[in-house]
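Lecture 7 notes: from sequence to structure.

We start with a single chain of 140 residues. Read the sequence below before looking at the structure.
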Amino acid sequence: MAVRASREIVIEATPEAILDVLADVATMPSWSPVHTRAEVIDTSKLSGSVIKFGATVTLADEETDEEQTFRIVGEDEADIRNGRLSVTSPLARALIGKGEGDSVEVSTPRGNKSYEIVTMSFSPKPAAAARKRGKARAAR
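Now the structure, written as tokens:
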């Protein structure tokens, strides 16, 4: 059996293989006009001293001093368990435009939370110097 995938490509496959492919396609997220206008941003070329899309930020909870590190990413890449924070989230929106040493307050379902920005960088992981500053802060 042949399936015409486009005007130029014909795929030879068994009916079972075609059904498998169609089942896989059916589970793929649909592409919206937003996806067709998406732009790839090379975060390795970003720099500056204020937080923006692509920044890796270490925050300290001002009540507990517990530190967490997040990278601000697009909505489709967000995975809070792996430290990837959506740029549209309330926390990311509060962080945008701020820098190291600033504090932000975010409304959460459990009430308002305040965080101090310990470090920020545009590398996927904080630099060694940034980690040392974070440890020095914890020792205070």
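The helical segments are 15-26, 33-36, 90-95, 128-139. Keep this in mind for problem set 3.
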